[in-house]
Write a structure and sequence with these properties.
Blueprint (H helix, E strand, L loop, with lengths): L2 E5 L3 E7 L14 E7 L1 H11 L3 E9 L2 H12 L3 E8 L5 E8 L2 E7 L8 H6 L9 E4 L5 H14 L3 E3 L9 H6 L2 E2 L3 H7 L5 H7 L6 E2 L4 E5 L4 E5 L11 H14 L4 H15 L12 H7 L1
Parallel strand pairs: 1-4, 1-8, 2-6, 4-5, 8-9, 9-10
Antiparallel strand pairs: 2-3, 6-7, 11-12, 12-13
Helix pairs in contact: 1-8, 8-9, 9-10
């Protein structure tokens, strides 16, 4: 069983479904409203656990009802929460999501996730012992992402960096990461002075650009490879990227070749969009393998 550490955000998603996305100053009538567990870090931790990994989460929640919901959800999904500490007198993170016109729009409030600091990482070092893979995203402070990249480099733990939400990255962080998985929008921000092909060639078998319905593109050292996605009937795209990253990390940590790992991750991501909620559609291992 692969041992994976996830450093990142834990939130509650407040999800509105509508046939139309409102423009500036516009009010529309929606169809439904739900609250479900989310946060990119938590999503990836839950997805990896469902896919059979031994997962430890490093993060923070508020001392509120949402914080209790987040912790209970981790327990239900067999994610180790020894390093998820509530922050006194602070609210938990939230994501405000509109599902409309076949896609999603999201506003994230970090709140307690801002307390996933470098100092907190240093207090959680025992979690890194024996890890096969570490995962991190960008809904936590930038200095923490930098610090974790250095910790993983020093300890020899491969780091999968999902650079979302998009913001520029220090070149040292890019160098320290073993795998980087931006979508097309994020890639343009990270590598503004390079074309897609130039960026891929600069980071062979390290940079994996997710291209939505087309698939995932990378450079294998000799040629560009596009691993196609799987066609399904989409219900909710929220969490598809997180499912991809978790499945990719699990497959790599288990020693699968890169191409096979991307295929596995694409299959898992395709299944995740067939149900409602960031975590609602995340498949278990048997479901993915049955569809490969």
């Amino acid at each position: 069983m692969a041992k994976i550490i996830v450093v990142g955000s834990s939130s509650i998603d407040l999800v509105v479904t509508s046939s139309k996305r409102p423009g500036a100053g516009e009010t529309v009538l929606g169809e439904s409203f739900k609250t479900v567990p989310g946060g990119k870090g938590a999503n990836q931790a839950v997805a990896a656990a469902r896919l059979g990994a031994d997962v430890t989460m490093i993060g923070r929640v508020g001392d509120d009802h949402f914080g209790e919901e987040i912790l209970n959800n981790f327990k239900l999904n067999r994610v180790n929460i020894d390093y998820v500490e509530p922050v006194t007198h602070m609210e938990s993170g939230t994501a405000h999501i509109i599902l409309a016109e076949g896609d999603n729009s999201i506003v994230v409030i970090k709140a307690a996730n801002n307390e996933v600091t470098p100092n907190y990482i240093d207090r959680s070092m025992d979690a890194f012992r024996g890890a096969d893979m570490a995962m991190i995203q960008q809904e936590i402070p930038v200095e923490t992402v930098n610090h974790v990249s250095k910790v993983c480099k020093k300890l020899g733990i491969p780091l999968l960096l999902n650079p979302a939400p998009a913001r520029p990255l220090d070149k040292e962080v890019i160098g320290n990461a073993a795998y980087i998985t931006p979508n097309e929008h994020e890639a343009k921000i990270l590598f503004a002075d390079l074309t897609v092909s130039e960026a891929l060639r600069q980071y062979p078998n390290k940079l994996f650009i997710t291209e939505g319905s087309r698939g995932v593109r990378y450079f294998d050292g000799e040629k560009e490879v596009l691993v196609p996605s799987y066609k399904v009937e989409t219900v909710d795209t929220t969490g598809a990227g997180d499912t991809f990253n978790a499945a990719f990390a699990v497959a790599l940590a288990e020693g699968k070749p890169i191409f096979d790992s991307v295929r596995f991750a694409n299959r898992a991501a395709s299944l995740s969009v067939t149900k409602f909620g960031a975590q609602g559609g995340m498949p278990n291992r048997q479901e993915v393998e049955a569809q490969m």
